[in-house]
Amino acid sequence: MTWKTVEYAGWGRFYRAKGELARPERASTLDQLVRETPCPAIGRRRSYADGCLNTERRAIDTARLDRILSLDEEEGILEVEAGCQLGEIVRHIGPKGWLPMVLPGTGFATVGGAIGMDVHGKNHHHAGSFGQHVEAMTLHLPEGRRKVTPADPLFKATVGGMGQTGPIGTARLRMQRTKGPVMMVTERRVPDLDSYLELFDNSEATYTVGWIDATATGASLGRGILEEGETGAGLVPPAKRGRRIPMDAPHFALSGPIVRGFNATYFRRIPERGRTVVKPLEDFFFPLDKIHEWNRLYGKRGFHQFQCVVPLSAREVLRDMLKAVGESGLASPLAVLKRMGPGRGGMMSFPTDGYTLAIDFPARDEAPAMIRRLIAMAVEAGGRVYLAKDAFAQPEQVDAMYPERETWAEICNSLDPDGAYATDLVRRLNLRNL
């Protein structure tokens, strides 16, 4: 197998790495690679910061291990290779009346990455996290393949474990039946944060997500657009054609006045009375995927995303966060609020019962201090940040956010005593130190 030295980056394009990558096409080649050179596996590099990087070291790119192997249409069990993209599953299996139980905001994420980061979706308050619907998976280890099920202690170390238990080869996923091949989506304006949280707490919709105007202040603090969705039957509208961003946006494109103007216009695009629209599945679940390489909108320096979840009892900290962001003038148009339930699949999984807030920041000089301030607020409130998005958390903050870290690290270190699977993220936060 040929190793090729390449430069690559996380989705935020701020953290970058140079190292050797191999791209096996068969499970047997993956076996050979892990026997000869144990190293972490990476997928489509949709982690925003350094979770998918291994600077000056080797990594296995699973892009070619992307086959859909089988679907039991009676039981709804799908078997796929770890490099299979979730969007491909929706495109091929959705018309047959099945969907993954959990889908994140991008269809370019791979199944292996979805397990490794235990992703969540717009229905977390009902369905929990991705890893909770994995029936079994196969790890490729130097001593051979190992099938892992929820009964195996290694399962909870692998789900949400950031690839630290070895490359995943295949996974068996429990699917859900759909009511039809489209999404029926109700959209409404929400005037402020209190109204938002009340709507989230009382919504009976299967899927809910809120866009937040992170530039709003005063009485409009936390205003936005709430979407509630259900699968349904009917005519399938054409999916919106994807467009590619041809060049990196100039620095001024996301200046404070431009972002505030855009957000105000975007907020008013929904009539005051609200509306219900029909969307293709992909347009609802993966709204930004139709803009290929949308990360280029942030310019050559890239961007950071802060995402936290805070307990229901600490909802007022969201107000403090949004006030700080709104006054800073650093926010971009991309900010999302969701309600989460208690479901989580692994020891290091991010999801927990509460409210999750995600905000993108252009990589300006002032951004790191702002994000560190938000991280500190989340930790003090008893919340945590999402390590798939994190760029600025400190090692001393991790155990307060992830109390099972030491137990997880013991399992990882017993399986991989030389730290061969460690990535830049794991080293930066000393995640496997005891």
Automatic annotation (TrEMBL):
User: What is the native source organism of this protein?
Assistant: Tropicimonas aquimaris
Which UniProt keywords are present, listed alphabetically? FAD, Flavoprotein
InterPro entries attached to this UniProt entry: FAD-bd_PCMH, FAD-bd_PCMH-like_sf, FAD-bd_PCMH_sub2, FAD_lactone_oxidase-like, Oxid_FAD_bind_N
Task: Spell out the coiled coil positions from the record.
Answer: none
What domain of life is recorded for the organism?
A: Bacteria
The protein's matches in Gene3D superfamilies, at most eight in alphabetical order, are given as: 3.30.465.10
Q: Where is the FAD-binding PCMH-type domain?
A: 14-178
Protein name as it appears in the record:
FAD-binding protein
Q: Which PROSITE patterns match?
A: FAD_PCMH
